[in-house]
Amino acid sequence: MTAIGAHVDQTDPIAEAQARNVPLVQFFLGDPQGYQGPEIRYAGGADGLRDDAAAAGIDLYVHAPYIVNVATTNNRIRIPSRKLLQQHVDAAAAIGAKGLIVHGGHVNKADDPEVGFDNWRKAVDAVDLKLPLLIENTAGGDNAMTRYLERIKGVWDAIAACEQADLVGFCLDTCHAHAGGNALESVVADVRGITGRIDLVHGNDSRDDFDSGADRHANLGRGRIDPDLLAAVVRDADAPVVLETPGGPDEHADDVAWLRERL
Length: 263
Fold this sequence. Notes:
By secondary structure, the protein is an alpha/beta fold. It has a single domain (4-262), classed as Divalent-metal-dependent TIM barrel enzymes (TIM Barrel, Alpha-Beta Barrel), CATH 3.20.20.150. The chain is built from nine helices and ten strands. The chain has helices at residues 13-20, 45-56, 75-94, 113-126, 149-159, 174-179, 187-195, 227-237, 249-262; strands at 4-7, 24-27, 59-63, 99-103, 133-136, 168-173, 200-202, 205-206, 217-218, 241-243. The strands form two sheets. An eight-stranded parallel beta barrel has the order 1-2-3-4-5-6-7-10, surrounded by four helices. A two-stranded antiparallel ribbon has the order 8-9.
């Protein structure tokens, strides 16, 4: 059976999982828009969270800050991003997380995308990956590294020769794929054809139309994605699912039930 969980507050992820009756949760470790570095807010600290989650049978996933952009040619962003990525790898590994999700980033309008691909290679070579790093497709931006399939291929081709390439996986976001202009009818096969793997699904509906470029999530069945198509993507991906939909335990429980019924 497909494991389905949700994105939650990090203060007590185990309680959040239990409130939703789900076997996995995702959360940030600190400010998703800040360079301050990760923080563990769980009362028992990193060791306590790792041990308590294992005892409760809850899998943990960590989402890196949105501001991480290891692809950019701007050294004032790229170098701190790489440092921040290492810090979150270390912190996520310390709590026993199953993976660290990171957005693909982007280059500047005047830049050759090949430079961004090579910067990804440099980042994978430079960061000590202590757990799977799951690169996520993004919804908007013509200069994004992982909005379009050909750009995803560019990133994967660049990192293929890295010693740690086997620790780099893929997180498929259904809202981002839809809003980014990728046909959901074929996106699972398309992504697998490029990366060879899908490690995690962000199961989200979209408030906006296909190819809108807008990253605005909706509860399942209440957005602009065809319900059967959304469920088919999750089924075909055959990977754990994190719901990043609006609301709290009640809304997430409804989304889990909606998805279970269609799977």
